[in-house]
Write a structure and sequence with these properties.
By secondary structure, the chain is α/β, with parallel strands linked by helices. It contains 15 helices and 15 strands. The chain starts with a strand and ends in a 5-residue tail after the last helix.
């Protein structure tokens, strides 16, 4: 099984922390949709796997009308094999939607919504230059909960000016809606963003790392107490509601990325990416040429990547899989390299799987980097 991901590269307004590829010039949206349809046909020619997930992300795919999304779903259905059940998700921004819009989406096959709330505090939304208000955010979740069994709420912690008590308020508000899934990310400062500029000019002061850690640790406890599984470092689900699209990625399954800046992976060693430029993308697609560049991962990089993604998950790093996929040299290396982390109880073996202990969860990425194989 594999997934297909659409990157719709348009947003009404640029959030100050965001470094995704998007344009706030909305005029080429129609052309982009024609480009997507053409790319679907070009990709399908070389794609044997059945799909179990269709994901509309971006950018802001909720700028699209239900009729446009339906056209894309139909193009996928016509060109690809589908599995028995297919998760079809669209990311929505609270300012783009109404009850009628969300209802129309549920009638064209969308069966999962991912709502970009980020915060329930107007002051934090303003600081991040989010276009919506806290009220709009709450309304959009209320409507979604009436229409969809399966939906996810996105939140951000570590926001400058927040503290543990404001974060508790935010997360408790999200839990009030009983969303079956939450994706909760730390605010990161990406190069060339307005936020990076503000931090450099001392207009914004980032939170102390200890405070961010205390927000994360409290969140992990709170979510566990509320019946959610922390199945990936930043993702929490009620039983049966793991995101199929994201899980495919973490499990190293194949995915196809459609649109500018979208990435694809064949599930083995080859990954490719479209240019992060709308005009370049469209010019190439209109000539019937896939604009993707590609690379073949060597064993060494594939091993490091497997460590990085799997250590963040609740199923962990499988020694057996390392043996089978990369060879004994790599599993021997890992067993040796992990010794100190075992002694300090930052990780543990759960049968064949290496997992991070609860107390060390916040340090997961650092532990993974320490386990990387640096030389051949
Ligand atoms: S709406 Fe999403 S993609 Fe668009 S700028 Fe904001 S965070 Fe980035």
């Amino acid at each position: 099984m594999a997934g297909i991901y659409f990157h719709f590269p348009f947003c009404r307004q640029a959030c100050h922390y965001c470094n995704f590829h998007f344009s706030t010039q909305l005029k080429h949206q129609e052309k982009m949709l024609r480009g997507f349809e053409k790319e679907i046909e070009l990709r399908a020619e070389q794609w044997p796997d059945a799909l179990d997930s269709i994901y509309f992300g971006g950018g802001s795919p909720s700028l699209l009308s239900p009729a446009s999304v339906e056209k894309l779903i139909n193009a996928v259905t016509k060109n690809f094999k589908l599995g028995e059940s297919v998760e079809i998700t669209i990311e929505v921004n609270p300012d783009d939607v109404s009850f009628e819009y969300l209802e129309a989406m549920s009638t064209i096959g969308i069966n999962r919504l991912s709502i970009g709330i980020q915060s329930f505090l107007d002051s934090e939304l303003k600081l991040m230059n989010r276009i919506h208000s806290a009220d709009q955010g709450m309304k959009s979740i209320e409507w979604t909960a009436k229409l969809y069994d399966n939906f996810s709420v996105d939140l951000i912690y570590g926001i400058p000016s927040s503290d543990l008590s404001s974060w508790k308020k935010n997360l408790n508000q999200a839990l009030f809606f009983e969303a079956p899934h939450l994706s909760i990310y730390a605010l990161t400062v990406e190069p060339k963003t307005v936020l990076a500029h503000q931090v450099k000019n001392k207009k914004i002061q980032l939170l102390d790392e200890d405070l961010v850690k205390s927000q994360y640790d409290w969140m992990v406890d709170r979510m566990e107490g509320a019946g959610y599984e922390n199945y990936e470092f930043s993702n929490f689900s009620k039983p049966g509601f793991n995101a199929v699209n994201n899980s495919n990625y973490w499990k190293g399954k194949a995915y196809i990325g459609i649109g500018p800046a979208a990435h694809s992976y064949d599930g083995k060693r080859t990954r490719s990416w479209n240019p992060s430029n709308n005009i370049k993308y469209l010019n190439s697609i209109q000539q019937g040429i896939l604009p993707a560049q590609s690379e073949i991962l060597n064993t060494h990089d594939a091993f490091n990547e497997y460590l990085m993604t799997s250590l963040r998950t609740s199923w962990g790093v499988s020694l057996k899989k390392i043996n089978q996929t990369f060879g004994k040299h790599y599993s021997d290396y890992l067993e040796k390299q992990v010794e100190n982390h075992l002694i300090d109880q930052r990780v543990y073996w759960d049968g064949d799987a290496l997992k991070v202990t609860k107390k060390a969860k916040f340090l997961t990425d650092g532990i993974a980097s320490d386990l990387f194989l640096l030389k051949y």
